[in-house]
Design brief:
The complex is a heterodimer of chains A (about 475) and B (about 260). Chain A is α+β, with helices and mostly antiparallel strands. Chain A has 2 domains: about 190 residues, no CATH class; about 250 residues, no CATH class. Chain A is built from 18 helices and 11 strands. A 6-stranded mixed beta barrel of chain A has the order 2-3-7-4-6-5. In chain A, strands 10-11 form a two-stranded antiparallel ribbon. The longest helix of chain A is centred in the first third of the chain and has 40 residues. The radius of gyration of chain A is 31 Å and the shape is elongated. With about 260 residues, chain B is an alpha/beta fold. Chain B has a single domain, classed as P-loop containing nucleotide triphosphate hydrolases (Rossmann fold, 3-Layer(aba) Sandwich). Chain B is built from 7 helices and 10 strands. Chain B has a 6-stranded mixed sheet with strand order 6-7-8-3-9-10. Chain B has a 4-stranded antiparallel sheet with strand order 2-1-4-5, covered by helices on one side. In chain B, strand 4 and strand 5 form a beta hairpin. Classes of the chains: A alpha+beta (about 475), B alpha/beta (about 260). The interface between A and B is medium-sized, with 23 and 30 residues.
Chain lengths: ~475, ~260
Amino acid sequence: MNTLKIAARNILRNVRRSSMTILAIAVGTMSMLIFGEFVAQIFVALETQNVTRSGHITVFRSGYFKYGSGNPAAYGIHDYQSVIGLFAEDPVLKPLINVVTPTINLFGIAGNFDVEASKTFFGLGVIPADFNRMHLWDEHQLKLAAFYGIEPLNETDDTHGFIGVGLGRILGLCEPLKIPDCTKQQGGDQQMIQTPSGQTKRDFSALEEKSDQSASEPQKVTAPRLDLLAATAGSAPNVVNFYVDKAISQGVKEYDDSLVIMNFRLAQRLLYGRGEKQAVGIVVQLHKTEDIPIARARLEQLIKGKGLHLETRELTELQPFYKQAIGMFSAIFSFISSVMAVIVLFTIVNTMSMSVMERTHEIGTLRAMGVKKRGITAQFVLEGALLGLIGATLGIIVGSAVANIVNHSGLTWQPPGQAVPTPLKVLTQGVSHLIFGIWFGLGALSTIAAWVPAHRAARMKIVDALGHV
Amino acid sequence: MCYSPINDSALKKVSGYCQYVFAIEEVFMKEGPVVVFEKVSKIYKMGEVSIPALNNVSLKIPNRRFSMILGPSGSGKTTLLNMIGCLDQPTTGKIEVCGERIAEISDDKISEFRARNIGFIFQNFNLIPVLSAFENVEYPLTLLGIGASDRQERSMSILESVGLSDHARHRPNQLSGGQKQRVAIARALVKGPGLILADEPTANLDSKTGASIIDLMYKIQEQYGATFVFSTHDPQLISHARDVFSILDGELIEHRSEGK
């Protein structure tokens, strides 16, 4: 007689109790699964947002990360092009790298003097082609670029770029940039300007380096203009004209209120003036996030090998919020999982204890017939494990169905720190480890939970069990 | 040593229950007592209260005989039978079953010993409710690791012997009291044990059914020569037994034997 068959029949013996037990486990499983998939979705969404924005690894000049952000000009990478070549052509890194590109991070003041508004900004100088490629990175097939309406950066005119929607609002560019939820401010929105090259300026753009103006002489454009002021490497004030093609949302309010994405060459002019053009960082975006450790180790090996005064920083160091969010949601998931595990544990212990009590006579009979103690233990443990696995399987089936419904519901939510609503989705692809982990975990937990009453059943004195009424 | 038919490779060649039990007889011819009690006492402790169930009992149960333990309720019959069946240990004294000193064997070994050598028939039938009559009978063979086809053959054969082959697929709750007890008898017999113990097997049956069950047990014993020990409080059943052990207040007061 197959022990499994007997266990299955015993489960059906008290259908109502078994159903309630299975239902409790299924609900627990479903909760864990859906929340786990929701958390997984948050993780990959955060990862995608950060990786598209700033890559997986950034190489800085040594000391920049700790001391250089206040004075980026002093921490430039001189021969950045040969360093990029070194990385891009390395046989180990080449297959791992999607984009390797120089970048400039700088701070300054953006002014729209037509409406007499100015605001400090965080500027990101990027190579447009590389920036556009980086924003196509979508390892987890989330299509966030489409959702946030990210458009390609102008590759032909280096005075053009994007700003954050928040900055656009602050600087009174609601109308020309068609920023949603943005009312007309006092002083009126800036009119589209016909770029008056050489026109007398009534703002601090008069300070702009004249020699560079010719190099970046814009064609006739119809885009709102900002004046960007920053300090050069020599601490002299420097100004460039910047034409805003679009206000974009990066999802985070702090970013949206201060971000200026500009052409790398324009950023170089702003930061280095007439001096040597450098890069502040070299961003490395990989095809897969899981390759970070290998790629970083190799980068450091190359840097050391060439004796370069550079350091590497990866995603979690560059974006502390990413790490904190993962830590927080992991903690919440662990807490919910623990609560569910305790519920499953007590449910199984209770059900199996009842079963042992009801079947005391049967236990005595089996022992009298020659079933060993471990045979009795195995019988009850198997029943507990079966209950757990049936409940977990049911929970996963129903949970997966609910997850699909959520994903097709079109609902949105606004995560903490996010500037705009984001789609309410749960991750259903690539979560087999989560599904198997929950299924196996609850199965194992049920087995362990059943072991306590099973062990008690096996240790019963046979004569007491037979005499049990 | 009790006979263990399962280990006998010659038995695997036989087919049909009669031939099978015939083989038992061949190897279970050893005369002498199958159970020996030497000054056995059993005291149950309930908190601080000690309840003596058996007091200094010495007896020898002869091999291949139909023996009866007779006594009123509370006299210690079940305690005595439990000890014969290696289900309980004495407080003092020595017990030898099929030549084995039970106190010296580990729990696992005792379980194996019971599985091979002892069949039980209980007052309340004690069938496993989730198993059919056939499966209940088959179960002891599973414990002995008998192959599926052999199990099937032996189980159906013994069910036929107790007249229940038509009810093989019925669950216990679909059987009458008498039928349940027949299944229990078949279950006890199927492995060909050296010793079959029945604790008041007729107590929960009407007199007519009870008599038929005793007749059946008696016939099986007569036909196949297994050692049957059953307890009862009904003196009317004495006529069936060749050895009667009368017990009162935990003490053996009389042993009557046809052979004596």
